[in-house]
């Protein structure tokens, strides 16, 4: 038997998906996330299925250990070594004030205190030419001071090292020699892109989480091997690809959004099969709601990610490529509360996995979105998680009482208020990823996933004027399934500013060839043959005089003079898409040259499902569901496992499956396609 396994750790549940390559059987399972030791949740999920890891041919894991180490400030004691005069770049930042009139604004606090930031008297110019070399004695003295401070990790980020990494590498070698056992991160191993603050921030964050990520991945791999795993495990990367645990430990900052991107990649793969290129993904789990946009089959990647960014907080830039996801604190476990001026809020605080929503009966007393959906009849207490986990509606009502009393309304009305508030938060996120980026939602199809995605998705799709919504098979564990659809991926960036017209073509071709050779070396260590490596080239261009750039496709092979015309036209089109104007008469310039290298791996085949019986046989019963402005309506409840191709359902209705439920609103129509997906026509 050949098994392909994916495990995704969420804030509340750990999701497990296993594909038997020989039979095509798919097993999915959920276990409670174990924050005290995330590896336990992974092991518990595997044990619940009873599978034999010795039969595994591929194992991929999405983890929250990196982002948790940052957000909880539980990373390693870290030092920074940088060029003389740039010790305070982390303090200065971009001097951004995202909330200009907030008198209580606080700047992001550096992860490295000033006394642990050290300067080397060296200098390169922007071309990478050496103006002043590195003194080995000076670096040795810095290493002595670092050792006295008991530092566990060191970040090295020298000025303009993206253009010439040799001096930075020399500093890294000396520190590694003088500080055995201390994790060393040099910026040029992560990114070769300009912008000193962003490069320094990224390098520091990588160093900060490296010891914790290494311990976690080593511990998990050891426990998996004890259970019989014989293959090298892989980790899901934030860029939508995967890498071996060994590679991931070198650059753990690439795992910062490890879990959420699996669903985006899965949606892109599903879109190709069913013929939908324009997709908005919508993933609601227990802690957060996440959305991303796929245009013309292309998953959007950004290097402008800011960890912990909010409209009132500048956040911490991470300059590595990350799938463009907007994430808000609005999940099933998000807590409803009253602020200081008496306004109802939902999230970002979450009841998490422990104690969880009040209805779980595990000690939680604060009302959550799950409690509200239970009170509104959208969740059946007897069918939650397939009936294996009992929830208590009375505990949910008791938790909702303080909100009802505050507003002088019934508990049912309070629950609806919580649902409306959460929906508004989610709708804002959906608009940020679509309308605010210049995309018309009416041109897209929404894919709902996560344990709560299909509960809220049909309403939100209609509000956003999206005409069709897809609820895939196993929506509650779809992100884990998506990880099985990923290839290995590495991204390389090289800053080199030059005009498009009259550029040094020899230098341009040399840059791409150097990055391809570096990618080949990385994949050779991971056992990927050259024939399974695919390169995709892009470049970041801008009109001369602009600050920011637009990513533009560049063909493979030798770039010639005539290719520059094609590249320029593509840049103008992309600029118009993003900013609604283009300046085809204005000179443009290259800023960054980018290479994405895919290591192709075998993926599961999505097969059509066999015909099902009568639609009447799928009816489980009826219950009253509160549809807000439509009122409380008696609704038929269907068993999704009994539905098949061609079945059609008119709202209002609920379609239940072991780990999720789809709420079909009045006026909406649901059809089951040949692959078993639920296709909802929202009526807009």
Structure description:
- With about 675 residues, the protein is an alpha+beta fold.
- Among the domains are: about 5-70 and about 215-255, 2-Layer Sandwich (Nucleotidyltransferase, domain 5), CATH 3.30.420; about 75-210, Dna Topoisomerase Vi A Subunit, Chain: A, domain 2, CATH 3.40.1360; about 490-600, Dna Ligase, domain 1.
- The strands form nine sheets. Strands 13, 14, 15, 20, 23, 24, 31, 34 and 35 form a nine-stranded mixed beta sheet that branches. A six-stranded mixed beta sheet has the order 3-2-1-4-11-12. Strands 6-5-9-10 form a four-stranded parallel beta sheet, sandwiched between helices.
- Strand 21 (about 335-340) and strand 22 form a beta hairpin.
- Helix 10 crosses helix 11 (about 395-405) and helix 11 (about 395-405) packs across helix 12.
- The radius of gyration is 26 Å and the shape is globular.
- The mean pLDDT is about 90.
Strand count: 35
- How many helix segments? 16
CATH architecture grouping of the domain at 73-209: 3-Layer(aba) Sandwich
Q: What's the pLDDT, averaged over the residues?
A: 91
Largest sheet: 9 strands, mixed
Q: Shape, please?
A: globular
- What gap, in angstroms, lies between the N and C termini? 47 Å
From the alpha-carbon coordinates, what is the Rg to the nearest angstrom? Answer: 26 Å
Low-confidence stretches: none
Fold-level CATH name of the domain at 73-209: Dna Topoisomerase Vi A Subunit, Chain: A, domain 2
CATH C-level of the domain at 73-209 = Alpha Beta
Oligomer: single chain
Q: Roughly what fraction of the amino acids lie in strands? A: 25-35%
GO molecular function: 5-oxoprolinase (ATP-hydrolyzing) activity
Domain Hydantoinase/oxoprolinase N-terminal: 4-178
Domain Acetophenone carboxylase-like C-terminal: 507-675
GO biological process, one term: glutathione metabolic process
């Amino acid at each position: 038997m050949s098994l392909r396994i994916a495990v995704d750790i969420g804030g509340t549940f750990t999701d497990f998906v296993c594909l038997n390559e020989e039979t095509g059987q798919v097993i999915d399972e959920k276990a409670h996330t174990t924050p005290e030791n995330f590896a336990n949740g992974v092991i518990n999920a595997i044990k619940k299925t009873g599978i034999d890891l010795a039969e595994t041919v591929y194992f991929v894991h999405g983890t929250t250990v990196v982002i948790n180490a940052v957000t909880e400030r539980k990373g390693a004691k870290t030092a920074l070594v940088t060029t003389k005069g740039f010790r305070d770049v982390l303090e200065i930042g971009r001097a951004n004030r995202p909330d200009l009139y907030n008198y209580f604004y606080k700047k992001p606090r550096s992860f490295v205190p000033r006394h642990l930031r050290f300067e080397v008297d060296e200098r390169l110019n922007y071309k990478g030419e050496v103006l002043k070399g590195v003194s080995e004695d000076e670096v040795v003295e810095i290493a002595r001071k670092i050792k006295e401070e008991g530092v566990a990790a060191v970040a090295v980020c020298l000025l303009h090292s993206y253009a010439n990494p040799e001096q930075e590498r020399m500093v890294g070698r000396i520190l590694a020699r003088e500080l055995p056992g201390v994790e060393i991160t040099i910026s040029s191993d992560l990114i070769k892109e300009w912008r000193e603050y962003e490069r320094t921030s990224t390098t520091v964050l990588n160093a900060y989480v490296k010891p914790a990520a290494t311990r976690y991945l080593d511990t998990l791999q050891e426990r998996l091997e004890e259970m019989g795993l014989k293959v090298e495990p892989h980790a899901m990367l934030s860029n939508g690809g995967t890498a071996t645990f060994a590679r991931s430990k070198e650059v753990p900052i690439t795992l910062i959004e490890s879990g959420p991107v699996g669903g985006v990649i899965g949606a892109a793969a599903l879109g190709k099969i069913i013929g939908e290129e324009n997709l908005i993904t919508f993933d609601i789990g227990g802690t957060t709601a996440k959305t991303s946009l796929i245009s013309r089959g292309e998953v959007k990647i950004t290097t402008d990610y800011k960890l912990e960014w909010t409209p009132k907080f500048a956040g911490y830039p991470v300059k590595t490529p990350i799938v463009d996801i907007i994430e808000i604190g609005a999940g099933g476990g998000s807590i409803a509360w009253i602020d200081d001026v008496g306004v109802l809020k939902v999230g970002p605080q979450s009841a998490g996995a422990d104690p969880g929503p009040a209805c779980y009966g595990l000690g939680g007393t604060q009302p959550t979105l799950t409690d509200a959906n239970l009170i509104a009849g959208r969740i059946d207490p007897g069918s939650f998680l397939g009936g294996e986990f009992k929830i208590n509606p009375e505990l949910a009502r008791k938790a909702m009482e303080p909100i009802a009393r505050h507003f002088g309304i019934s508990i049912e009305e309070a629950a609806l208020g919580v649902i409306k508030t959460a929906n508004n938060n989610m709708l804002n996120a959906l608009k940020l990823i679509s309308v605010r980026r210049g995309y018309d939602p009416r041109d897209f199809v929404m894919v709902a996933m996560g344990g709560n995605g299909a509960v809220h998705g049909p309403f939100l799709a209609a509000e956003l004027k999206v005409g069709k919504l897809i609820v895939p098979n196993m929506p509650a564990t779809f992100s884990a399934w998506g990880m099985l659809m990923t290839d290995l991926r590495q991204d390389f960036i090289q800053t080199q500013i030059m005009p498009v017209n009259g550029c040094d073509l020899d230098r341009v071709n040399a840059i791409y060839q150097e990055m391809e050779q570096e990618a080949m070396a990385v994949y050779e260590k991971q056992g990927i043959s050259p024939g399974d490596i695919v390169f995709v080239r892009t470049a970041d261009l801008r009109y001369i005089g602009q600050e920011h750039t637009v990513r533009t496709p560049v063909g493979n092979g030798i770039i010639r003079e005539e290719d520059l015309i094609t590249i320029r036209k593509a840049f103008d089109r992309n600029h118009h898409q993003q900013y609604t104007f283009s300046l085809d008469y204005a000179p443009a310039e290259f800023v960054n040259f980018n290479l994405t290298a895919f290591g192709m791996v075998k993926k599961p085949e999505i097969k059509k499902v066999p015909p099902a019986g009568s639609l009447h046989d799928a009816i489980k019963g009826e219950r009253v569901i509160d549809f807000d402005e439509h009122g409380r309506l008696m609704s038929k409840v269907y068993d999704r496992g009994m539905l098949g191709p061609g079945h059609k359902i008119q709202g209002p209705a609920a379609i239940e499956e072991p780990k999720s439920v789809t709420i079909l609103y009045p006026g909406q129509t649901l059809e089951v396609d040949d692959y078993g997906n639920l296709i909802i026509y929202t009526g807009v």
